[in-house]
Amino acid sequence: MNLRNLLLLSSVVLLSTGCGLRRVPLDVLDKLPYEAKIELLEAENDLALAVDRLDEARAEVARARDQIRRGRDRYSAARDEVSAAADENSREVAELAVVEADKRVEWLRAKQRLNVREEDLAEQNLVCAQARYEVSRLTAARKAKLEGSETLDPEKFEAQLKGCEEDYAALKEKAKEVGAEAETMRADWDTARAALARKTFDARASPFVE
After folding, report:
1. Could you tell me if residue 22 is inside a domain?
2. Is residue 209 part of a domain?
3. Among 30, 37, 146, 153, which residue's CB has the most CB atoms within a 10 Å radius?
4. 104-156 pLDDT per residue, tens
5. What is the per-residue DSSP string for 160-197?
6. Where are the alpha helices (DSSP H) in the chain?
7. Could you tell me the CATH number of the domain that includes residue 54?
8. 150 found inside a domain
9. Would you say residue 210 lies in a domain?
10. What is the pTM of this model?
């Protein structure tokens, strides 16, 4: 993805999140020398990584949504097995399968709540990467003494980045809480899966989320 596309995509994300970042005007950067542009590569790479991270976070939310749907189908099928059980042993297996399927769905939903938090983090990370990029561009412009750069206050750009990073840290703390809940739900599912495994000699206890 080239820089033009990166900036376009990041701008769309910033608009969608209601964030209006302070930017270095393009007309100030028009005469930026080649060596100064080279110095911006690290910030540009960070921006590209932030875009990729957001893409992956959104894809994970979509994947988990599909997993939850399949998990509900599995739960429904397990309940049907209870009604159709022909003997006590079959009924006991079916009932354990119901519990396992139910705990699986609970965990998947908790995991999805974490996925949504991770998506929020990825969005904020992209905002911060853009703010960091603007600091780098202003630094390069002022170093090259480009006309118009002297009117831009570096402290305001730095404050913008600091505020963004503080918001990111706050979101990360909230994600930790949701992550702890997901771990608890995972442990509950593991317990139910182990009980089903013991009863069926491991025949019905796949660790893979379907």
Report:
1. no
2. no
3. 146
4. 999 999 999 999 999 999 999 999 999 999 999 999 999 999 999 999 999 99
5. HHHHHHHHHHHHHHHHHHHHHHHHHHHHHHHHHHHHHH
6. 3-16, 26-29, 34-39, 41-84, 88-143, 154-200
7. 1.20.1270
8. yes
9. no
10. 0.84
